[in-house]
Amino acid sequence: MSRRLIIRPEAEGDITEAALWYEERMSGLGLEFTAEVHATIRHAVERPLAHLQLRKQPEVRRVLTRRFPYRVFYIVREGALVVFAVLHAARHDRHWQRRV
Q: CATH 3.30.2310.20: does it fit domain 4-90?
């Protein structure tokens, strides 16, 4: 089943903010971060039910990036996967819970 991907503006902002932070540390690292996050999101689209379920209604799941300490939070909808937050692993869960 082909799912439509929706990345909410707040999640895009999370990605951009983190990428800029990494880019300030080392040239090219921001692009590597962005590529890693997008690869993680693609994996979630391909196998949305394979990742940790945090909430049933709505169905919220989380997938971890490999290289960077970030978590991608998404909602599984019929025919769509909605990414609503991309947060550093040290951030408290209340940050994603406010966005659901």
A: yes
